[in-house]
Amino acid sequence: MTASPPRYTATARWLHALLGLALVGVFVMGLYMTSLPFSPQRLKLYNWHKWAAILVLTFSVLRLVWRLTHRPPALPAAIRDAMPAWQRLAHHGTHAGLYLLFFAVPLLGWAYSSAAGFSVVLLGVLPLPDWVPVSPDLAETLKPLHRLAAYALAALVLLHVGAALKHALIDRDGLLRRMF
Fold it and tell me: What is the pTM of this model?
């Protein structure tokens, strides 16, 4: 295709990049910190992980508000018509799942931290409210849910990146020019 498709706004592109980088960073940090033995380093990383997760939550709110107030460009007709129905369904389902998990993962982590009795203190100075009571039983329920949701989000991010690479390298349809 030679014509450039309509692009996302600059704000949408920046929020996409910042959220993507933050998600990768938080996920990698989560994998690394949970592999460490109990130590001051591990505790420090847990706090950084929580701070970064609040940043992810903030970017997610901003991105959702922007998306709701600024419609994304439609898929170009030629690309949309060339996609089998299952790909269009996967396209919409993946985006819906991403938005759901942008919120679910950090909120589950925050709830787990609160239930375990460890408040989130943003940057070590701003205490955030605990939004579930301290409960070891609840913490034990929330911990695997947070982990499962994080892995599901990572899988959807990889699917999203894989689809973008397919459009760039196989289809060569110029779709990525909308975002970059």
Answer: 0.91
**CATH number, domain containing residue 137:** 1.20.950
Q: Which domain holds residue 36?
A: 10-178
| pLDDT tens, per residue, the chain with 180 residues | 445 668 899 999 999 999 999 999 999 999 999 999 999 999 999 999 999 999 999 999 999 999 999 998 888 888 888 889 999 999 999 999 999 999 999 999 999 999 999 999 998 899 999 989 999 999 999 999 999 999 999 999 999 999 999 989 998 888 888 887
Q: How many CA atoms does the CB half-sphere of 50 hold within 13 Å?
A: 22
CA distance 80 to 161: 18
In a domain, 107, yes or no: yes
Cβ neighbours around 3 below 10 Å, total: 8
Distances in Å between the alpha carbon of 90 and those of 47, 64, 95, 163? 35, 20, 8, 10
Number of domains in the chain: 1
For residue 51, what are the contacts with CB-CB under 8 A and spacing of at least 6? 120, 122, 123
- In terms of Cα–Cα distance, which of 70, 58, 56 is closest to 12? 70
Neighbours of 137 (CB within 10 A): 8
